[in-house]
Structure formats: structure tokens, C-alpha cells
């Protein structure tokens, strides 16, 4: 026996937390997203309480350092995140899912006989990730590193659109049709010259007009399938329309744009911004959030857009990032304002870095890993 430091674990009110206490169990918000990871050391109780109060969390399981006479035989074990393992397994199976969906796309492109059950199965395969309780927005960061941009984009737009639909409390059949539309939005790009799709320089006006035709091409490829609902076809055709009338192909405005198209437009833009393109590197999720909040106001459905931006920020709590000053850290809190400037805990210390603070105005998140 010898005197050693150990930790007492107990659940307490957040008002009773003290400096040096350690969070013993990850703290989740009401949607199951991690707010504070297990092992977080509390150095600023006032900030800690304020953070959790905003999410209506009022108790916390903590470990408090203590000393006692105990046996030296202490067993430690490393935990492997179940979510991380699920993401790895999902990415491993990505190639087979991609090949399977390509076969169905080729049937549509070639005008072959296509069965409703085949498309329904593809939707179910795409959405099965939700059954595994995987953080889909972190999952998409892994998928975007793969080569097949067309399939990855279709896959990711479907996941995002489905998530938005769930947040809007859409009915099961609505979610099914929304997901099918999202999966098919870019199928018409097969008729756009590859050299145009992969061009690194800015498009000329004529090239831009040519690229816009893909929505009509997509619609034409699916319009003769009777089992595809008309609202699915309309969402495919109109997902590039904008609330202010600046979109295409018809330039319609406001509520004249169908709900599915308004949802998919947001999903499409976020997925495109956070994916690598021939003409630019991919944006980080928070760069995408900033762009959507500052450059698309008045162009996207405002209510859906702000709901989306506020929701997805929480999905990146616990995410490790690399900063432009060479430091690394973990996202521990997403503020209600300036979602794209979160609070980080720097690696190797318990220092919190608030990207909203004026002194940190030049610090940016460069890489998520």
C-alpha cells in the first residue's frame, strides 16, 4: 500500500464545479451531439457553467483529484471510439456502394428499364448510416478525400437533405421522395463535357450557360419514369433556383420554388463548398458556414438556412483541427453568434482559445482531422 493520487467520481450541479475537476462522462446536447468530451479539465468554471446553461445542461459527472492509500495494481485501458470505428468501416465499404449506385445511374442514362425497388434500395443503402448513430458531417469529411467526386457529392447531398428533412419533421414518404431527388440532382452532368466540369480556370459566360443545362438534362432523364413522383422531378429540375430570382433554369422566386428544391439547394451548396474541385481546394466546414451565412442571405430559404447552420455547428464539437499558426486543438464549444468562430482547447494543455476574441482575429482553422 502507498499513498497515491486518484479521482473520486460523482455527479454534481454545474454550479458546484471547481478548478481542476475533470469531466468523467462526455456531455451531450439534446440531440446527442457531444458538447464537452470526457477528460476535459475545468479551468474556468464560470465559462463552463455559461456554456452548459445555454444547452440546458445542469448536472455533470466529474472526477475530483484526491489522495488515499490504495493498491498499486491499477488497470488502465484505451478506448477506441465506436463512432470512429463505424466511420472507418463505412469508408471501407464505400467503393461497393459507389459501384452499385453507378449501375442504377447507367440504366437511367441509357434509358434502360429501371425498377422502383432498385432505387429504393439505393436510398436505403445511403441512409443506413443513420441507423448506426454516426456523426454524418464528420463522416462526409472522410468521404470527400476519395476520388469519385460525382458519387461522393450525390451521396453527401442526400445525407444532408435527409437530415434537414428530419429537422423539419417531414413525414416518412416525404423523406423518401426528398432523398431520391437529392440522389438524382446531378445525373444529367453526364451530358456536360468533362473538360468543362474539370476546368480549373473561370468559366466563360457561354460555358456557364452550358453547365446550367445539367438540371434540364437530369429532368429529361427521369421524367418518363412513372414511379418517380412529380415533386421529385421538380426538385431535380429546380434545385438551383434562388429565392431572389437569380437562379436557374426558370428564375422563379420565393415560395414558388418547391420545398424539396429549397432544401436540396442548401445541401448542394454545403457539399460543394466542402469538397475539393478542379478549380479550388475544399473549404473547411466552418469556412462553408461563414460563406453560406454571409453570401447567400436572400438567395436561400432563410428559415431553413439558419436552422441548418445552427444545427451542423454542434456536430463538430470534439473535432480536432489544425490552425494556421501551427497549433492544434479540439473544438469544445460553438457560440450562438458567429458559429464559424468556435472555442478550442489547445492540444497538450488545458488552454481555451476563443476564436471570437479580437486578439485571435488572425487565427483560422486550416484543417480538420
UniProtKB/TrEMBL annotation:
Domain of life: Bacteria
Listed SMART domains: HDc
Domain HD-GYP: 128-324
PROSITE patterns in the record: HD_GYP
Transmembrane region(s): none
Pfam entry (one): HD_5
Protein name: HD-GYP domain, c-di-GMP phosphodiesterase class II (Or its inactivated variant)
Source organism of this protein record: Natronincola peptidivorans
Top-level taxonomy: Bacteria, Bacillati, Bacillota, Clostridia, Peptostreptococcales
Amino acid at each position: 500500500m502507498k499513498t497515491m493520487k486518484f479521482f473520486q467520481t460523482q455527479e454534481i450541479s454545474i454550479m458546484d464545479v471547481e478548478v481542476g475537476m475533470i469531466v468523467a462522462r462526455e456531455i451531450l446536447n439534446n440531440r446527442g451531439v457531444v458538447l464537452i468530451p470526457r477528460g476535459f479539465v475545468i479551468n474556468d468554471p464560470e465559462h463552463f457553467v455559461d456554456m452548459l446553461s445555454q444547452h440546458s445542461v445542469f448536472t455533470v459527472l466529474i472526477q475530483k483529484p484526491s489522495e488515499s492509500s490504495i493498491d498499486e495494481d491499477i488497470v488502465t485501458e484505451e478506448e477506441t471510439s465506436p463512432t470512429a470505428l463505424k466511420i472507418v468501416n463505412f469508408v471501407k465499404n464505400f467503393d461497393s456502394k459507389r459501384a452499385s449506385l453507378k449501375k442504377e445511374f447507367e440504366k437511367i442514362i441509357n434509358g434502360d428499364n429501371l425498377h422502383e425497388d432498385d432505387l429504393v434500395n439505393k436510398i436505403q443503402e445511403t441512409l443506413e448510416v443513420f441507423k448506426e448513430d454516426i456523426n454524418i458531417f464528420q463522416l462526409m469529411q472522410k468521404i470527400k478525400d476519395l476520388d469519385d467526386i460525382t458519387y461522393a457529392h450525390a451521396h453527401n447531398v442526400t445525407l444532408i437533405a435527409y437530415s434537414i428533412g428530419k429537422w423539419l419533421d417531414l413525414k416518412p414518404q416525404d423523406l423518401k421522395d426528398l432523398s431520391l431527388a437529392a440522389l438524382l440532382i446531378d445525373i444529367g452532368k453526364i451530358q456536360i463535357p468533362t473538360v468543362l466540369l474539370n476546368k480549373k480556370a473561370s468559366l466563360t459566360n457561354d460555358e456557364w450557360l452550358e453547365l446550367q443545362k445539367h438540371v434540364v438534362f437530369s429532368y429529361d432523364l427521369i421524367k418518363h419514369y412513372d414511379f418517380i413522383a412529380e415533386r421529385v422531378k421538380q426538385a431535380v429540375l429546380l434545385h438551383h433556383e434562388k429565392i431572389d430570382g437569380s437562379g436557374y433554369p426558370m428564375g422563379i422566386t420565393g415560395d414558388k420554388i418547391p420545398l424539396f428544391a429549397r432544401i436540396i439547394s442548401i445541401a448542394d451548396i454545403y457539399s460543394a463548398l466542402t469538397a475539393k474541385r478542379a478549380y479550388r481546394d475544399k473549404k473547411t466546414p466552418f469556412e462553408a458556414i461563414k460563406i453560406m451565412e454571409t453570401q447567400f442571405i436572400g438567395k436561400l430559404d432563410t428559415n431553413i438556412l439558419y436552422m441548418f447552420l445552427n444545427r451542423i455547428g454542434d456536430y463538430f464539437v470534439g473535432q480536432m483541427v489544425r490552425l494556421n499558426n501551427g497549433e492544434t486543438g479540439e473544438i469544445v464549444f460553438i457560440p450562438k453568434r458567429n458559429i464559424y468562430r468556435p472555442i478550442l482547447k489547445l492540444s497538450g494543455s488545458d488552454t481555451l482559445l476563443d476564436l471570437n476574441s479580437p486578439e485571435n482575429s488572425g487565427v483560422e482553422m486550416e484543417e480538420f482531422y
